[in-house]
Amino acid sequence: MADKPIKKQSTPDFEPNVVSRSLARVGVHGGHLLKRSIMRRLRGGPPNPASVGSMTKPFVTLTGKLATQPDTLLFAQMRLIKDTSLFWSGLLASGIGKKPLTVAEPEPGDGRFRDQAWNDVIAFNAVKQAYLLSTRWVMDTIDDVRDLDDHDKRKVRFFASQMTDALAPSNFVLSNPEVLRTTVKTRGKNLLRGLANLLRDLDEGKGPMPFRMSDPDAFEVGDNLANTPGDVVFQNDLMQLIQYRPTTETVHRGPLLVIPPWINKYYILDLGEKKSFIRYWVEQGHTVFVVSWVNPGPELAHKTFEDYMLEGPVAAMDAIEQATGEREINTVGYCIGGTLLGCTLAWLAARGDDRVKSATFLNSMMDFSDVGDLAVFIDEDSIAKIEKAMNKQGYLEGASMATAFNMLRANSLIWSFFVNNYLLGRDTAPFDLLYWNSDATRMPAAMHSFYLRNMYLNNRLREPGGISLAGTPIDLRKVKVPSYFASAIEDHIAPWVSCYRGARNLGGPLRFVLGGSGHIAGIINPPEKKKYGYRLNEDNPANPEEWLKGAEQFEGSWWPDWVAWAEQFGGGEVKARIPGEGNLPVIEPAPGAYLRNEPAPPSPAVRKRRQPQRGKSGSAKQKTPSPEKVTQ
Which residues are catalytic? Predict the structure, then answer.
């Protein structure tokens, strides 16, 4: 987390005037909600992108299958009788032996039942065990239904788990021991404060689940987030290009272009001094350029995926040449930014453009055959409903995307905040990652429709010529650029097996690294933390599981391994470049207007083109050596 002092979380005892303050907040936010409700009825609310039909059809299919499978129903009833017998006999033995009932265990990492009372107090222990047994019975019954296709079964399991998660005893006052203790101790002040928090979030928040995940007053972009020194040197309708100020006397000749996702903002790569990947790249002697995407409104509804390519990485490459005099560059793409980078490289290869010398992909998919639980949101009905909503307002709200991602980890990303904010009545703790996660951006209608249909629904990117961008068929096999793929073994948004399969679609040398943890922590893993570890296999067999079996485990972060790999593409060293010294003058300091959801300032005139720098033939000084010998 950032070094700046941050607001401390409120204590459970609350301040002395909590009742009067909470009642005042209830009145203010309640009034705002009433007014908004009236205006919504008069004007009509924003379109709802959720497809009820897509959610209900699999359950109808399930019911039909069960009606023709009496043996499945019989086995389900027998299993229920068995589980009930185990529960009551175990409860009796537990009462006699004074030991907790343990006929069912929570999944690893399930934090809902951490309170010791779930095991020590027989009433709470019995409620917990009954819930876990019932949930297991529901899921086992779904799995036993025959002739239900994999997609429908996954959807039924997913939405059934959403219901069972919502009905967990930890989500209710009388069945959650921690909430019950707090309610007695504060004489109900926690519930009053929770009501005020709920009305505040409904009033001020956006989307179907507008709860706070982090203290919004604890962070500020440009201050303790997105604070690596740099300047905006180029901009267009879709992005601002930031050039970061050097911290070394010499730098690699080849600049480094970073293409972040546009589903959220780029500062996931710049979470303060101790977590900043951007700052780390700068310290390793790279001239770093980062694309900061605009948060589009209805005026950009027509922008397509190819517009994001042409006005994003392609325009950035041209601008970097103007700023540094160097045509050859290295590139990094994160998540959907990596997917766009792969498309861009194929587009350049088809045109004979060889300016990119290396490509790094962070949790990036170019094969969408297995997208994990995100598949439950991908079918014709769901996409048609999203397109209908986007066509009405010109974009998809970022809150809709955030809700879908949160549902993938509902217990940790939804219900834990429900309990903390509304039942316990506490303020949310400051957390830089969750602050960034809540700072969502919108998706232009034309771009997002193309992306959902061609990547997720039909998986055309992996097919040679399956899609065309700017009149050019895209064939990933033509990409001969050396590539470095970093994925995370617990990633639920871009599963590593799909990232691996997509990596093998490229035609150049490949180095694939598998980090620990998930979509964010597996990538944002500074070496100083010495966390998670990573796996590496010099061979790249067709089967991802074979790759995993043959991989060697290393301690700590994979960042130094990347530094050693990237060294060979640095192109020697030159004098450090200062933003504005090239042909592109500084427009404004980083992080720039687009990150703050503000209009872009006027662009100054571009200076005359200068000749490329000439420097030493050696390589830039490497500050962090890799423990692993690196080959292409």
Answer: 335
